[in-house]
Design a protein that fits this description.
Number of domains: 3
CATH topology of the largest domain: FAD/NAD(P)-binding domain
Largest sheet: 5 strands, parallel
Number of helices: 13
Helix content: 25-40%
Radius of gyration: 22 Å
CATH architecture of the largest domain: 3-Layer(bba) Sandwich
Distance between the termini: 13 Å
CATH class of the largest domain: Alpha Beta
Structural class: alpha/beta
CATH superfamily of the largest domain: FAD/NAD(P)-binding domain
Number of strands: 22
Shape: globular
Bound molecules: flavin-adenine dinucleotide
């Protein structure tokens, strides 16, 4: 019998690690009063908890094995943040809660149905109200040697260590720009690594102004930064420095850094290089939500340009965990037609002020473009160098001519790098927004 394309196939292999109800199995009629949430980081958990507290049912979908997103990576057993634990206590065992972990939303079938790959199979998940909490990605900028084994992003190394990669006794250099460098260095240090240097692109004057900005308006964050600095005491903190090259043959052996007109080489077994974060807007673009300046555009109620889709957390702009938690709550209430609570608005305002301070201090400046020479690989999936990209006018033309962004990562790394290097904007994301198995895709036919 031919399958009705509009009618979702039964999700196969859905992992429901909480006892919940898969109402979407039974079609659109039963998705009423269910808030679907993509992403179980701080924003998604906050939205889920708020919606459940308000009496709604939720379906929380995330592609990681355990909830928590980036900052709370590792799952409930490892959480120390009281907000994470208390959100999980509400979700766990709640009859109105369905959690789909290890489930990637790979796009949409129509404007109201998500396509989810889980356990190698495809599932169609209709929604009535959707909250996007898809977080951010690290901005990796190309420099000579950045594709050597052992070179990762700053958050990337952190995630590998949190996932169990041993670094004890290994030499680590953390480089690039932004507060994530300190967090990554701290994670490496605690895991027993020998952190040989932290290399920050911003000059000391700008970092001092950032510190003063924290002190005057964000006391708690100032204390967090001070305690990180105390923990990292003794590690060379090189400021106003630019990466020249990662060195080594088969694997990284060192990194050359230019500071004060001189080149200095630091030996290392791992180089963690990150240049900040960029909002993850793939799914929003596939759903035709407006994206402005690289972030999902939302109004004061976190509503996107679509009336049935809200967004919260780093996908609406980089600002850290407090912003994610406050926006998650506001988005969930708005999705249920309720106003934000009195305490959420000041929290969001403060978190937006912090976001603006972050952007003023750490936005990558144009001089970082010089790290990428003509022969430096920009698209590592398809081995496309800067020289091959230069003749092209935009992302689309370059893609057609060079295959940039057409490898397994589908431009998730080089797309942001090209936006920075050449000012190219992305075209709309198309389903599937990430690589999916043929078997899962055939489930949707
Ligand atoms: C690599 C990295 C490391 C970081 N480390 C720190 C740190 O140590 N300290 C700190 O203060 N901040 C850190 N941050 C910043 C951090 O992202 C925020 O502070 C906070 O986690 C943002 O919460 P969020 O809920 O908006 O997004 P996230 O925590 O990123 O959560 C988003 C979730 O959505 C999931 N998701 C996205 N798209 C899909 C999809 N299509 N289908 C299914 N699931 C999807 C993601 O896998 C993720 O689990 C890091 C960011 C990155 C990118």
């Amino acid at each position: 019998m031919p399958r009705d394309r509009r009618r979702p196939r039964q999700p196969a292999g859905v992992q429901d690690d909480l006892r919940g109800r898969h109402d979407h199995h039974h079609g659109r009629r039963l998705v009423k009063n269910v808030v679907h949430i993509v992403g179980s980081g701080p924003a998604g958990l906050s939205a889920a908890r708020t919606a459940l507290d308000a009496g709604a049912r939720i379906c929380l979908i995330d592609d990681n094995h355990a909830p928590g997103g980036q900052i709370w990576r590792g799952g409930p057993a490892r959480w120390t943040d009281a907000r994470a634990r208390s959100a999980w206590n509400t979700l766990r065992g709640h009859p109105g809660c369905t959690v789909m972990q290890d489930a990637q939303v790979i796009g949409c079938m129509d404007s109201r149905t998500l396509l989810v790959e889980t356990g190698g199979r495809g599932a169609a998940v209709p929604f009535e109200r959707l909250v996007l909490c898809s977080g951010s990605r690290e901005l990796s900028l190309p420099f000579p040697g950045w594709t050597l084994p052992g070179v990762t992003g700053a958050g990337g190394l952190q995630a590998l260590i949190k996932g169990g990669m041993p670094v004890s006794g290994r030499r680590v250099v953390v480089a690039g720009t932004g507060p994530l460098l300190l967090a990554a260095a701290s994670t490496a240090l605690r895991a027993g690594a020998h952190v040989t240097a932290i290399v920050e692109h911003q000059p000391w004057s700008r970092l001092s102004a950032f510190g003063l900005g924290l002190l005057s308006r964000h006391g708690k964050k100032f204390l967090q930064a001070a305690s990180l600095f105390a923990e990292l005491r003794g590690i060379p903190y090189v400021t106003g420095a630019t990466l020249v090259a990662a060195t080594g043959e088969d694997t990284v052996r060192g990194v050359v850094v230019r500071t004060g007109g001189k080149d200095v080489e630091y030996a290392c077994d791992f180089l963690a290089a990150g240049f900040g974060l960029v909002p993850n807007t793939d799914l929003a673009r596939a759903l035709r939500c407006d994206v402005v300046d690289g972030a999902i555009q939302v109004d004061d109620a976190q509503r996107t340009s679509r009336t049935d889709v809200w967004a919260a957390g780093e996908c609406t702009g980089i600002g850290g965990v407090d912003k994610a938690v406050a926006e998650g709550r506001i988005a969930a209430l708005a999705a249920l037609g309720r106003p934000p609570s009195g305490r959420d608005l000041p929290l969001r305002r403060a978190s937006h002020a912090f976001a603006a301070l972050l952007a003023r201090t750490f936005a990558p400046d144009e001089s970082l473009r010089t790290m990428c020479g003509p022969e430096t690989i920009v698209c590592r999936c398809e081995d496309v160098t800067r020289a091959r990209l230069l003749p092209h006018r935009d992302w689309r033309e370059a893609k057609l001519a060079t295959r940039v962004g057409m490898g397994p990562c589908q431009g998730k790394t080089c797309g942001a790098a090209c936006a920075f290097l050449f000012g190219w904007s992305h075209e709309d994301a198309r389903t599937p927004i990430m690589p999916a198995t043929a078997r899962a895709l055939s489930d949707f036919e």
